[in-house]
Amino acid sequence: MISLIIRRFFQLFLLLFGISFIVFISMFIAPGDPAAIVAGPTASASDLEAVRASMGLDKPVLVQYFDYLAGVFHGDFGYSYQTGQSVSDAIISRFPNTFKLGIASMIVAIVIGVITGILSAIKHNSWIDLSSTTVALLGVSIPNFWLGAMLILVFGVNLQLLPVGGLSYSVFSAEGIKELILPAITLGTASAALIARMSRSSMLEVIKSDYIRTARAKGVKRRSVVWVHALRNAMIPVITIIGIDFGALLGGTVITEQVFAINGIGRLMIDAIAARDFPIIQGTVLLVAAIFVVVNLVVDIIYALIDPRISYE
């Protein structure tokens, strides 16, 4: 397991290096001039050159990239072209909101998805199975922005039961939980549908196994067969989906944060792209990539805890 962790951190280093290079080059060849945005529309040519020199944009692109890497190795991700704020400070101030939203969405997805999938497998070909499959298909098909708008309209505007914008309260308070309900449902619905379908198919496969028939033949209670013997083995592919989705939720909160006016990493990234704020874009993209790799590592560790037969030697 230790060797696995070491290998994954080495892969993390290589992955972040490659992603940083791709993002840097993409921003360089994209149309527009960050110096012109910083200097303003009335800046003269000499003013633009002075701004480019102060921002380091007058150097060759590879020199700019290696200067950026040198700063990253020293913990310096640069400063925002727009606000002058440190990239690290900007991310640290926004990440808690995105993290809270991602965790809440994942809880919604796991609770709804796993329970629905198991019930569908146990009640195979029943009306429960048909209804769950239909709802799962709708959950995957409905766009986040439409679902978020409908939830705001129904529960925020018409019924006035839940707040519809921002995350200003502590997540441990009643108001903080209320703020998270609608955006968590909006973001977690698609993941819940995928988890439900995977849980159903995996559970159906495990239920048909010989050891499950043996347990039933020995008189083991049905509840124990399902929740003890079958569920543990059925959860391995489900955990894969959960891990991938969790990374995707943290990196894909852009639309949900826009709909619910949440100041998170998603909105920070969108604003930075619109303003061609290179340091902010690079910092947020590297953060999302790192989260994906770390989550996959955690999933591999959970595999070994659930099924001791799995070895990474």
From TrEMBL:
Q: Does the keyword Transmembrane belong to this entry? A: yes
Annotated ranges, domain ABC transmembrane type-1:
95-303
Residue ranges annotated as coiled coil are none
Query: Where does the signal sequence lie?
Result: none
Q: How does it sit in the membrane?
A: Multi-pass membrane protein
Q: According to the lineage, what is the superkingdom? A: Bacteria
Q: Cross-referenced InterPro entries, in alphabetical order?
A: BPD_transp_1_N, MetI-like, MetI-like_sf, Opp2B
Query: What are the protein's UniProt keywords?
Result: Cell membrane, Ion transport, Membrane, Nickel, Nickel transport, Transmembrane, Transmembrane helix, Transport
Subcellular location(s) per record: Cell membrane
Checking Gene3D superfamilies in the record gives: MetI-like
What parts of the sequence cross the membrane? 12-30, 103-122, 134-160, 180-198, 285-306
The entry describes its oligomerization and partners as: The complex is composed of two ATP-binding proteins (NikD and NikE), two transmembrane proteins (NikB and NikC) and a solute-binding protein (NikA).
Task: Report the family membership.
Answer: Belongs to the binding-protein-dependent transport system permease family. OppBC subfamily.
Q: This chain belongs to which protein, by name?
A: Nickel import system permease protein NikB
